[in-house]
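Narrative progress, year one. The postdoctoral researcher (J.K.) led the effort to move from monomer predictions toward full complexes, under supervision of the PI. The following entry was the first complex the group processed end to end, covering 297 residues in total.
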Amino acid sequence: MAESYQYLRLTFAGGSYLLPSTAGFTIEQRESLHLNGDLTAHVTAWRVTRNARWPAYALDQEFQVTRRDDWQRAVFVEAMPHAIGIIVDDVHLLPRSPAQASTFTPLGPVPTAAGHLFNGAWIADGQMMLVLDPPAFVRYLQGLGD
Amino acid sequence: MAHTARDQIHALSIPTRVGSLLVPSATIAEVVNIATLTPVPLGPEWLVGAIGWRTLAVPVVSMEALFGKPAVPPGPTSKAVVFYPLNGRPHWEYFAILSSAEPRPQPVDASAVSLAASELPQSSFVAAGLKINEQSMWIPDFERFKKAFYP
């Protein structure tokens, strides 16, 4: 951590989190996605490509799967075998800044096989945003199922 | 024989809703007000959030939840007691305990009485207890903290 990354700020469920831009991502509008009509399913929408369909999940403030209809955008993070997405209320690429994220170690058991979900924090103007660890975040989303 | 200042240990009494913790002052970096507590999703129940402190994010622990009781959200008199990193942990891994009120200095000298095991709370996070001026205080087991915090 503490490198001069550029960050994508993801806002959903009342919280904001930073994703290092090195993770690789695409932003899709709701209109370009296929909505999942099964309201009991975990996946909110799919981005259909020629060879695959990429799932997008809505998460609540505890990062548990939820279903909602009041959204307009999804951010897909690059992953193998295909990208995986999260529904967001707002997404914003932060300008490069001399301020840096500091290393942060959450306490307690690691929630994913790839480690803790967060590995840093950005603190500025009395506000703090946790920085997502892309491999752990992807692994977590991949474990949510259909 | 009279006790001298050299026979004293400088400690801090940290009030929580499961009792007062007694910790050496040297383990504490600072006591701060809690302006904002940022949730840490997917954390254990006893990790009630994180605060921005200096340039760091510091995780905040609820002793109530660590003792198996419901976590109590910070109130108007709550403080975050920021501890130095535990032995062997990286230099940035400060952590904080949520206190229900302002901690206060508590000198410990030979007049303190050790509590029997039967007088201690049923928690593996308590290493020992002392009674000082008729008040019982728990001495936390920092090694046990380390095992819970960084399993």
